[in-house]
């Protein structure tokens, strides 16, 4: 059975973006890119909300093509073009996009069908609204969090309107030279 893993940068106080969606506080470097690239290369499926998907579609298909493209841009662009994409969106319901599945209704049933199709991970990139919806339906199996050394004080929280406790088991931690700490959790569904 496939597992949905939420991949998210967040502030020390639990925000994934500033109040207007700002993400200019997120620290990334080659060390983080290499770490993330290894894990991503083990998956063939990405899950996005509409806004994040459109942002990714505007950048990644051609990000590795330019003469000044970084190693990360080349590698992730190649992965992105080959990965199957799942997009949660009510407004894109009738879009016919190659290599992409649009889920606009019956979210729990559709996601559970996809999870039953194979083993491995479905990586949920960013997408705070989609993440909130999946948390409410108890469909997230793990969290891969990159805690940035900043306190925002306000913004878009990762965990909002949680109805029941979510118990987590820590699988791994990794500290990066830029001050970011990666925390890899699996949801304890017992």
Automatic annotation (TrEMBL):
GO molecular function, one term: 5-amino-6-(5-phosphoribosylamino)uracil reductase activity
Gene3D superfamilies: Dihydrofolate Reductase, subunit A
One record GO biological process: riboflavin biosynthetic process
InterPro entries with a match to the protein in the record: DHFR-like_dom_sf, RibDG_C, Riboflavin_Biosynth_HTPR
Top-level lineage group: Bacteria
UniProt cross-references to Pfam families, sorted A to Z: RibD_C
UniProt-recorded name of the protein: Dihydrofolate reductase
Organism of origin: Mucilaginibacter gotjawali
């Amino acid at each position: 059975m496939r597992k949905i893993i939420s991949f998210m940068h967040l502030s020390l106080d639990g925000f994934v973006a500033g109040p207007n969606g700002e993400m200019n506080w997120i620290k990334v470097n080659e060390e983080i890119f290499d770490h993330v690239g290894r894990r991503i290369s083990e998956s063939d499926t990405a899950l996005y909300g509409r806004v994040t998907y459109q942002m990714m579609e505007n950048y990644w298909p051609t990000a590795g093509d330019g003469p000044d493209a970084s190693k990360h841009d080349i590698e992730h662009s190649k992965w992105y073009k080959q990965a199957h994409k799942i997009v949660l969106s009510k407004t894109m319901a009738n879009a016919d996009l190659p290599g992409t599945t649009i889920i606009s209704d019956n979210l729990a049933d559709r996601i559970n069908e996809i999870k039953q199709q194979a083993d491995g991970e479905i990586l949920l990139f960013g997408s705070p609204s989609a993440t909130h919806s999946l948390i409410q339906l108890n469909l997230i199996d793990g969290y891969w969090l990159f805690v940035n050394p900043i306190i925002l004080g306000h913004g878009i929280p990762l965990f909002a309107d949680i109805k029941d406790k979510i118990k987590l088991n820590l699988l791994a931690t990794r500290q990066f030279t830029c001050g970011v700490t990666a925390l890899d959790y699996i949801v304890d569904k017992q």
